[in-house]
Amino acid sequence: MIEVEGLTQVFGHKTAVDDVSFTVRQGAVTGLLGPNGAGKSTTMRMIVGLDRPVKGVVRVNGGDFRRAERPLHELGALLDPAALHPGRSGRAHLRALALTNGIPSSRVDEVLRLTGMVEPSSRRVGTYSLGMRQRLGIAGALLGDPQVLVLDEPVNGLDPDGVHWVRELMKSLAAMGRTVLVSSHLMSEMALTADHLVVMGRGRLITQGPVTEVIARATQSDVLVRTPQAEELTAALGTIGGSTRRAPDGALLVTNATAEQIGRLAASGSIVLFELTPQQGSLEDAFLALTKDDQEYAAGTVAGPHGPTTGSEQDGARR
Ligand SMILES: Nc1ncnc2c1ncn2[C@@H]1O[C@H](COP(=O)(O)OP(=O)(O)OP(=O)(O)O)[C@@H](O)[C@H]1O
After folding, report:
1. Is residue 195 within 8 Å of 29, Cβ to Cβ?
2. Which domains does the chain have, with CATH numbers?
3. What is the interface pTM, i.e. ipTM, of the complex?
């Protein structure tokens, strides 16, 4: 378990993380989401003890991870794969890590096999692709077979096979009772992987909770209805405060009424229904709704050959 209480980090005049509190439970994958610059990496760096918060407390399995006797058994982290020594081979990098942490070198071979890195492990890290660095970083995080994993953008640069592998790995670690905190910008991937979410924006906590709850809270849940008696159904729904609009394919999208209410209304009014399907918003819809006021770097749209391109990370839609 990871407990974060009132975590705050300041860089010069910038409050990168502002009084953030959340809990990452064991036995689940928790996704840490937020727009660029939201403070995710800074939060993760404080959790793993790389940076000291100006305020707040982090507890890993109830204690201070920086005082752990066998840190790699307690917590494994993937934070910055670019920070690997380019002149060392992948195997040498892991061996050095293992040696300094009292881990047998047989475990190096195990994690190399687990991450599909046996073949390139004798090559210098400087020759690795981004995806290979990610795999080596994950191998390092797994080296101590830790109870807690903190992975910053682990699927960045991985091919579809690698993305699938990381997803299954995280799920299997959670199923074994481990604590997994992972950040990603890939909402479709997070929707498939995470059980819980922590959403940040501009350094602050926006929301946290089970994925389905976060989506339900942030998106409108319509019910899709197909009926040859759309007008009658719309009128009937009006009596209970429901409203309808047309989907592009002609179906009705009903707001402010549950599938059960619609079914009952239709039955009592002898209205024929061909389909009655609750629609759930996507995680991407929820993310965009939750963070719409917290986009530090909002891009503009390309207006076409005669219009200007507005907004960019450089010209700063910073508010
Ligand atoms: N060492 C640092 N010195 C100064 N500012 C920093 C430093 N590290 C982070 N920041 C700033 O703190 C804010 C949060 O950055 P952080 O990298 O934690 O965000 P993030 O959510 O991980 O973003 P991204 O999704 O783009 O990786 C940003 O405005 C960033 O520029």
Report:
1. yes
2. 2-217 (3.40.50.300), 220-278 (3.30.70)
3. 0.97
